[in-house]
Write a structure and sequence with these properties.
By secondary structure, the protein is α/β, with parallel strands linked by helices. Helix content is about 35%, strand content about 10%. The chain is globular, with a radius of gyration of 32 Å.
């Protein structure tokens, strides 16, 4: 079977006003150069072997003037290759280039150093602690054992807490000297290379930072407090890095990080383009002291950053004594499940917590800052999600955690009421199953505003109630909490319904996206 060459297209003269629409199989992209002086001869198709059907193996070619007159191929015009320009209403109509849909290269936090200056059994000289006062470190009371065993147990627990937060290589130093801190920072930077590094400082057993930007450690004989300049820490740790300061007056150290960005680097590696140099989380302001009430752990800020679910459950029971009557801290500690298993009560609460904190950040922060803090580094994202919760807890205690880069206050965001409701429903159902009480009643929170959270141990409610319904006073049954199975929470179904309502009634050209959008996407992409 032979093919004729009737399908080949002869070159024709092309005027500026003519429009040629060739077949897609006949168009071939060529460099757009000056047209040739003369059009080449028409290309002849090569016949196939007999018995083979189909189009010619070599489709006809167009001349250079013809090809240059064709429309350009899809997604190759300058509008696809240049940044998207749009009118930003927040900049008074100025035209700005928005970021592309692709994220910047991910930054990984590879290593973490933990400095614990506790000096168990000895209070710092500049703070007079009340009696009783907060004692727990990493949910462990060091006064129940000897000083040596307390240091070992706290060191083991703090490593476990950070390892559960995100996978990285962690090292810790208990009551170190300046040389030990120096060696720790250099070894971690050598292992992290150009990745981000975390340095956590716990100064509950030393004086508060000085006005010159110094924190305190110990001498070799453990008889004196030795100052350590934050500038030296920045120099040893290098860039990029995350600093967490859990100590009194931690906010006094923030100006020194701002000055470090304005001055030249002190001989360390230069920061990479597009990355953050120093990210700082401080537990309280420059003139504030950490909470010392015995109902809180001494390391409340660290606990909020590493074990937020445990803090949230205890905090809710303490501040809602009317609806949580009969629920003790021991009961809260026995909630079954694992954080990474969403089919268990504890894992479901963790999933809801992650969705709410992500959504609060998405609705509050500027988009570039949200992408930088919550979408480029797993450890950094976990720390900032938990920091939003820590900010809410400390604001209720009258304290102001500080952060660099600066974040707007999210402690009064309406979605925190959804979190309180999810915690209350979970605790109520668990208590009913544990006590063997029929589920014939439940607390009825109003849809009103959340009440203030008090930190002085006084009764308070996270919601206003139409009637004082509470848990009945019933003795605990010895049945195991691990055998309790709860029905799935309706939290995400409610968020999907809210988003559906927005799609039906809230859409308009100028309407903002629904605030439940991150939760909906999380449900859709999660297995």
């Amino acid at each position: 079977m032979e093919f004729n060459s009737a399908e080949s297209v002869a070159p024709t003269s092309v005027s500026s006003g003519d429009t040629i629409t060739p077949r897609a199989q006949d168009v071939r992209r060529r460099p757009s150069k000056s047209p040739l002086a003369a059009s080449p001869a028409p290309a002849q198709s090569t016949p196939r072997a007999s018995g083979v059907s189909g189009p010619p193996t070599q489709p006809a070619h167009f001349s250079e003037p013809q090809v240059s007159a064709f429309p350009k191929a899809f997604l190759c015009s300058p509008r696809h290759e240049s940044p998207v320009m749009r009118m930003n209403a927040d900049t008074s109509g100025r035209e700005e280039a928005t970021a592309g849909w692709r994220l910047r290269p991910r930054m990984r936090t590879a290593c973490g150093g933990i400095i614990m200056c506790l000096n168990v059994g000895t209070d710092p000289p500049d703070v007079v602690k009340p009696q009783p006062c907060a004692k727990q470190e990493c949910w462990f009371d060091p006064t129940r054992v000897t000083r040596k065993k307390a240091k070992e147990e706290i060191g083991r627990r703090v490593l476990e807490q950070f390892e559960k937060l995100a996978r990285a290589r962690y090292k810790h130093e208990m009551d170190p000297t300046v040389d030990q801190v120096h060696h720790l920072c250099l070894s971690l930077r050598k292992a992290a290379r150009s990745d981000r590094l975390l340095l956590h400082y716990n100064g509950h057993g030393v004086p508060k930072p000085t006005e010159n930007g110094e924190v305190w450690v110990f001498n070799k004989s453990f008889t004196q407090y030795m100052p350590l300049a934050v500038e030296d820490l920045m120099h040893w740790v290098g860039r990029p890095a995350i600093f967490v300061f859990d100590c009194n007056a931690a906010g006094a150290l923030m100006p020194f990080f701002d000055m470090a960005e304005q001055t030249a680097d002190r001989g360390n590696a230069k920061p990479q383009a597009g990355t953050d140099d120093f990210i700082v989380l401080a537990a309280c302001g420059a003139k504030e002291l950490l909470p010392m009430s015995p109902i809180h752990p001494a390391d409340l800020f660290t606990a909020c950053l590493t074990t937020p679910i445990q803090v949230a459950l205890r905090r809710f029971v303490q501040t809602n004594q009317m609806s949580m009557a009969g629920v003790t801290e021991d009961f809260v500690d026995q909630i079954p499940g694992r954080l990474n298993d969403r089919k268990t009560p504890l894992g479901e609460l963790n999933w809801i917590f992650t969705a709410i904190t992500d959504t609060v950040a998405w609705n509050t922060l500027p988009r570039p800052l949200f992408q930088r803090l919550f979408r480029q580094d797993l450890l950094l994202a976990a720390l900032f999600r938990n920091f939003l919760f820590a900010n809410r807890v400390f604001k209720g205690l009258g304290l102001t955690p500080e952060v660099r880069p600066h974040l707007p206050d999210t402690s009064e965001h309406p979605l925190w009421a959804s979190w309180d409701s999810a915690v209350e429903n979970c605790l109520f159902q668990l208590f009913q199953r544990r006590s063997g009480i029929a589920a014939s009643f439940s607390p009825m929170p109003l849809a009103g505003r959340p009440a203030d959270i008090r930190g002085n141990g006084q009764p308070g409610n996270a919601f206003e109630y139409s009637s004082p319904r509470s848990f009945p006073e019933a003795p605990m049954q010895p049945n195991a909490m691990s055998d309790i199975r709860l029905p799935p929470s309706t939290f995400f179904a409610e968020q999907l319904t809210a988003c559906e309502v927005w799609l039906k009634f809230g859409r308009s050209p100028r309407a903002r996206p629904p605030e439940q959008l991150p939760m909906v996407l999380q449900v859709r992409v999660s297995p």
